[in-house]
Design brief:
The protein is mainly α. The chain has a domain of 219 residues: MetI-like (MetI-like fold), CATH 1.10.3720. The chain has 13 helices and no strands. Helix 3 packs antiparallel against helix 13, helix 8 crosses helix 11 and helix 11 runs antiparallel to helix 13.
Length: 327
Amino acid sequence: MNPVDARPDLFDDQARPATGRRFATRLLLRVSEALISLLLLAALCFGLLRSAPGGPFDTERALSPEQQSALEQRYHLDRPLPSQFAQYLGNAVQGDLGDSFQYPDYSVRALLGSGFAVTFWLGGWALLLATLIGTPLGVCSALRHRGPVDGLISAGAIIGIALPKFVIAPLLILVFAVSLGWLPAGGWDAGDWRMSVLPIAALCLPNLAAITRLSRHAALEILASDYIRAARARGIEGWALLRRHLLKPLLLAVLAWLGPAMIAVITGSTVVEQIFGIPGVGRYFVQGALNRDYTLVMGVALCAGVLIIVTNLLVDAARAAIDPRLR
């Protein structure tokens, strides 16, 4: 059979519109799933916040009925819950996340803008360093399987995974800030790079351990595959083997890890930013939850949800671009 006839989907012009329609349908489905997920997330956060005991204006000194009524009218808390939720969604679609209850001089959008800038700076460097260091470590461990280097790297990765961030961060402060005095123990100044070192390290180390183990297991599976054996039988070894046959499938595994890693960085920043006193989005989330700041907590949850969904979509697109079978 003619090779051209065997693959009519690649060469038949009539098949291309059908492929385009399938792509458009799949894209529309993914966008619809993302919108439904955000709607469910907003509804869940709204219901949980309203059902929690206490309120945003509960203080040690009781407010008068007139003051309480004025505050509720200002923030539309005197309306029925479905009406409040519908109004919040309408404003959120237009980019208005409301005013903070505990920071009346600031809007939620302004607070999250400054908070996400700090969190992106710390989390971005943490993920970048973890990927650039952990991936070669995992490959090196796989190439020296069951050797002393493999044992040392695997043991370090297990320790890194076992230690949570709320243990790693105080240990880093104790060693490098208190004992050695090399770096500041906390605070934040965007112009002083030393204040970023310990928070980035606290966020990086668990991700570094995770990507090292992931790369090691992925590399071992790839090296045991039939096409690697065939390549070695043809005399391909060393860097040529890694570049031609190991790098691309390993990159697919690393990209699949980036989505959950982004979630881990966002959730982990909550603890790290509290410990180091950094004004990031994680710290705002904790303070908003403790103070019953409804709009601030809702804003953090929605922005984090949008970020996670967009990251997963980009990761899926990148994996499909690398591996045609995923298309």
